[in-house]
Amino acid sequence: MLELMCGLDEAGRGPLAGPVTAGAVILGPDFPVEILNDSKKLSEKKRDAAELIIKEKALWGIGIVDHETIDKMNILQASMYAMKLAYDMLLLKLDDWVKKNNISDYKIFCMTDGITVPPVNCADVRCQPKADATFPSVMAASIIAKVERDRIMYKMDELYPEYGYAKHKGYPTKAHKEICRQIGPSPIQRHSFKY
Question: Scanning 9, 50, 101, 158, which has the fewest C-beta atoms within 10 Å of its C-beta?
Answer without folding.
Answer: 158
